[in-house]
Amino acid sequence: MQLIPIHAGHLSCDGGALFGVVPKPLWSKTYPADKNNITKLTMRCLLIDLGERKILVDAGVGNHYSEKFRQNNGHEETDVMEQSLAGKGYRVEDITDVLFTHLHCDHSNGAVLNENGQLKLQFPNATHWCSKRQWEHSKISNIRERAAYFPEILNFLKSEGNMKLIGDDCELFPGISVRLFDGHTTGLLVPVIHTEEKTVVYPADLIPTAAHIPIVWLPAYDLYPVTSMEEKERFLKEAAEKEYILFFEHDIYTECATVEWTEKGPMMKEIFRL
Question: What is the dotted CATH code of the domain comprising 2-272?
Answer without folding.
Answer: 3.60.15.10
